[in-house]
C-alpha cells in the first residue's frame, strides 16, 4: 500500500507547526494516514511515506500558496529540504513570507 507509515510511537513528537504542515500534506496528497502519524524525522520519500516526484510538486504548490515559500526543482538543497517533515518545516519557517 502506498503511503504506509514507517514510524514508532516514541518518535512522533510534532511541533504545532509540524502538525499544521502535516495536516496540509495529508490533505493535499490525499494520504491514507493521519497527520499525527507522520514522524517528524521519518523520510517523506522512499521507505517513509513513499512519496514520489509528483507528490514533491504538490508539496511545492501548497508551500508556495500557503506560506509564500518558493521551492524550485533546481535547488541543490532539495534532498535535504524534502528529507523529512521536520526539515521541510524548518525550511518553510526560515523562508516564509505569508501566513
From TrEMBL:
Residues 28-91 form the Carrier domain. InterPro entries: ACP-like_sf (IPR036736), PP-bd_ACP (IPR009081). NCBIfam families: PRK09184.1. This is Acyl carrier protein. It comes from Acetobacter lovaniensis.
Amino acid at each position: 500500500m502506498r503511503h504506509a507509515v514507517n514510524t514508532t510511537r516514541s518518535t512522533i513528537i510534532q511541533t504545532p507547526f509540524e502538525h499544521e504542515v502535516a495536516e496540509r500534506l495529508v490533505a493535499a496528497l490525499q494520504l491514507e494516514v493521519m497527520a499525527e502519524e507522520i514522524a517528524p524525522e521519518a523520510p517523506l520519500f522512499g521507505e517513509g511515506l513513499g512519496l514520489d516526484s509528483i507528490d514533491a510538486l504538490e508539496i511545492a504548490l501548497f508551500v508556495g500558496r500557503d506560506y509564500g515559500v518558493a521551492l524550485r526543482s533546481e535547488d541543490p538543497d532539495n534532498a535535504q529540504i524534502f528529507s523529512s517533515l521536520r526539515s521541510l518545516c524548518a525550511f518553510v519557517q526560515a523562508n516564509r513570507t505569508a501566513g
